[in-house]
Amino acid sequence: MFDTIPIYLLLCIGLCLLLYMVIHGKTSPKFPPGPKPLPLIGNLHLLGVKKPYLQLMELSKTYGSVFSVYIGTQKTVVLCGYDTVKDALINYADEFSDRPRIPINEVSSQGYGIVFAHGENWKVMRRFTLSNLRDFGMGKRSLEDKINEECDYLVETFKAYKGKPFENRVIMNAAVANIIVSLLMDRRFDYQDPTLIKLINSFNENIRISSSYLVTMYNMFPSIMKWLPGPHTAIFKNRLNLYTFIMETFTKHKDHLDVNDQRDLIDAFLVKQQEVW
Q1: What are phi and psi of 83, to 5 degrees?
Q2: Does a structural domain hold residue 243?
Q3: Which range marks the domain in which residue 93 is found?
Q4: How far apart are CA 59 and CA 65, in angstroms?
Q5: C-alpha–C-alpha distance, residues 46 and 76, integer Å
Q6: Do the beta carbons of residue 185 and residue 153 sit within 8 Å?
Q7: Which contiguous run of DSSP H or E holds residue 76?
Q8: Which of 167, 174, 175, 181 is nearest to 200 (CA)?
Q9: Domain boundary among 97, 131, 154
Q10: Reduced to 3 states, what is the DSSP secondary structure of residue 53?
Q11: CB contact at 8 A, 256 and 270
């Protein structure tokens, strides 16, 4: 009796895989063509890990500039080539204006913000942000003045090394960050400010980890990967560092908020929040 248990187990697994292939092998008539997926992994065996865009370019030669692939069990439509992407963004702007639901980003941002949000929440935040950033100089001469001022700080910092070699990654990131920070919170950081360096390192680490194989696995099987240790867990730790800084910044702005003298985007957000409430 016990000898037959492995056979029944294999049969059950085989039937489950067959059922999966039958269900997921059916493609909507409106869904673009693409390579046949394998159970669980989809088309990952064709894409590779390091440079999947090269394999996607090769697949476009077979299936055309618009085709579909499976990233694990997730159906994905690929637009390949400049003309195709341009046509989609200009002539089908509404259909392509939303953001995908990526599990690692869903946990990190919880659906809020601009970059990783989606749906109506993203549309509202996008309209608010673009409108108010223009009020604070985006696309205007005043922002150009801030950029020139930051360039002066950058040049002086370079001169301080007197021609000796130095690591410029953090300095360059800090200079760019200061332009953004000037719009968000009306201030600038010294290039050696520990808070700024910590935030920049957290952002850079998250970008590096986001392209790793483990994050790909997390996005494919979030219900399993969330319980497993690995570098992908550092994304959530870095998120807490950022959120702590944001909460402290918002608290300080709220304590000194003047509705008639809005200094930056955070002030504008707090005023808008009061109007809604």
Answers
A1: -60, -40
A2: yes
A3: 31-97
A4: 9
A5: 14
A6: no
A7: strand 74-79
A8: 174
A9: 97
A10: helix
A11: no
To the question of pTM greater than 0.90 for the whole model, the response is: no
Residue 18 falls in which region: left (phi positive, over 0), alpha (psi -120 to 50) or beta: alpha
Neighbours of 19 (CB within 10 A): 11
Place of tokens 């963004």: 89
Yes or no: say if 215 and 209 are a contact pair by the CB < 8 Å rule: yes
Instruction: Specify the pLDDT at position 21.
Output: 52
Residues 239 and 108 sit within 8 Å (Cβ to Cβ)? yes
Q: Which structure tokens are listed for 151?
A: 């360039």
Specify whether the backbone of 111 is left (phi greater than 0), alpha (psi in -120 to 50) or beta.
left
Q: How far apart are CA 45 and CA 74, in angstroms?
A: 14
pLDDT (tens digit, 9 = 90+) per residue, 104-160?
A: 888 777 777 777 777 777 888 888 888 888 777 776 677 888 899 999 999 999 999
Q: How far apart are CA 136 and CA 138, in angstroms?
A: 6
Q: Are the C-beta atoms of residues 112 and 92 closer than 8 Å to each other?
A: no
Task: Say whether both 148 and 241 belong to one domain.
Answer: yes
Residue with tokens 């867990």: 233
Reading the block at residue 87, the tokens are 């046509």
The backbone torsions φ and ψ at residue 102, rounded to the nearest 5 degrees and listed phi first, read -100, 120
